[in-house]
Design goal:
Blueprint (H helix, E strand, L loop, with lengths): L2 E2 L5 E2 L4 H16 L4 H11 L4 H12 L4 H5 L2 H5 L8 H14 L3 H14 L4 H13 L3 H11 L10 H14 L3 H14 L4 H13 L3 H10 L1 H5 L5 H14 L3 H12 L7 H16 L7 H9 L9 H13 L3 H14 L5 H21 L3 H9 L12 H18 L1 H7 L1
Antiparallel strand pairs: 1-2
Length: 414
């Protein structure tokens, strides 16, 4: 007899108890609640041949910029070999293999194929959305959700998460009013949806309403700051709201509370920490010794050769700390890696190396060279991933460099 998940997708190898645990883990994964890994463990124990439980286990580590975390899925993929599986499940396994082969575009295409036949495959949609974000593809992100949204009607489990994904896609494509309306609709269905609160933070940032943004985050603190995987990142948005109101002290207080770097810091927190301290410095604040701790936390990742978005943020930390040794080590690693026939080699050659050299030039006061290098970045720079709010750090740096050499001079340089 066939077994189906809560949205009507057929699954292989499940038991009743395993399927219940899978649904609980998936709900946490969709809503960015902490504990999805622990929630999935009973499914893996009770139903070791439950293919979609194995697939979710792999995706939990693959939706990351951390190469160590991504590679931890290699034995998970091996463990799926030979399991009886449906065509949909075999496509999921193929998507996992593509990511581990560093071919995100193929993985996205495979997930798109799944969604064409099974638009209610919540996990395929969730992961494709994450990969669209990691590869800087906002148009594809919106088109993907637009295509399946009519199917996600009524009281289907997880509909709030789909609305939250749609809201983020709308925001990243510049439709801020629709993004806010859709995020509020998601929260009406599930007030604890942390990703919808995250979208609201983006909307307030992009529409330049920092005071309203701080009020929102304060009023809904329990929903986004407790038991979520995005608490530190939403706190980062709060720090940006403080900076927008010329409150560097408030931003630094949030940094110390949420993002202070240690050797065990998560990569996502290191990225936010670099962006925040750099912005504080641009506005005349003094991060002090925080830069040194942050640079030390980034140092072991210099040779990751995996994510240009991360490389740029590592360089922010090295330049901020005035650690020329670490900055040169990263520059040398990027110079060597730019010729490799890999995804990272291509983005390093096109974006990563010139952007990092621009930051080094800015740090030593060579603002003309910084402007030249930043102005030369190609129009595809958004493909390093991240959001508009995150990538804005390069535009802010160029603007400050222009201010320091004078607008007319800068135009003649560019």
């Amino acid at each position: 007899m066939s077994t189906f998940d809560a949205r009507g997708c057929r699954v292989s190898g499940a038991t009743a108890a395993g399927l219940a645990a899978f649904e609980q883990a998936l709900a946490r994964f969709q809503s960015w609640r902490a504990g999805s890994e622990a929630a999935l463990e009973p499914a893996l124990r009770d139903a070791p041949d439950f293919v979609m439980a194995r697939v979710l286990q792999a995706y939990q580590v693959l939706c990351s910029r951390d190469v160590r975390r991504v590679r931890s899925a290699i034995p998970l993929l091996a463990g799926m070999a030979g399991l009886p599986a449906t065509r949909r499940e075999r496509l999921h396994i193929a998507a996992i293999a593509s990511v581990l082969a560093d071919d995100y575009e193929s993985a996205k295409a495979i997930l798109g194929e799944i969604l064409r036949h099974e638009p209610l495959d919540a996990l395929a949609l969730q992961v494709a959305h994450a990969f669209d974000y990691l590869t800087g593809d906002p148009l594809g992100m919106k088109a993907r959700i637009d295509a399946v949204l009519p199917t996600w009607s009524g009281d289907l489990p997880g509909r709030h998460a789909v609305l939250a994904m749609h809201a983020f896609a709308l925001e990243e494509n510049g439709d801020f009013a629709a993004a806010e309306q859709t995020a509020r609709a998601a929260l009406a269905l599930e007030p604890a949806d942390a990703r919808a609160h995250h979208v609201m933070a983006h909307v307030f940032e992009m529409t330049r309403r920092p005071a309203a943004g701080l009020r929102w985050l304060d009023e809904h603190r329990a929903a986004w700051s407790t038991g979520t995987v995005v608490a530190n990142h939403v706190g980062w948005h709060g720090a940006l709201f403080h900076l927008a109101q010329d409150d560097a002290a408030g931003a630094l207080a949030l940094y110390d509370r949420r993002l202070a770097a240690t050797a065990g810091s998560e990569l996502a927190d290191l990225i936010d920490a670099s962006a925040l301290l750099w912005r504080i410095g641009l506005q005349g604040g003094d991060p002090g010794s925080r830069w040194n701790d942050l640079a030390a936390a980034w140092a072991p990742r210099i040779d990751d050769a995996f994510c240009t978005f991360s490389d740029v943020h590592a360089m922010l930390a090295f330049v901020g700390a005035a650690d020329r040794t670490l900055a040169r080590r990263l520059e040398d690693a990027l110079r060597r890696g730019q010729s490799l026939p890999t995804r990272h080699g291509a983005t390093t050659r096109q974006i990563g190396l010139p952007a990092c050299r621009a930051l080094m030039a800015f740090g030593r006061g060579d603002h003309r060279l910084a402007i030249t290098l930043l102005a030369s970045l190609p129009g595809i720079s958004h493909r390093i991933g991240g959001s508009h709010a995150q990538r804005d750090v390069l535009h802010l740096t160029m603007r400050h460099a222009i201010e320091r050499v004078g607008w007319c001079d800068a135009m003649s340089i560019a």
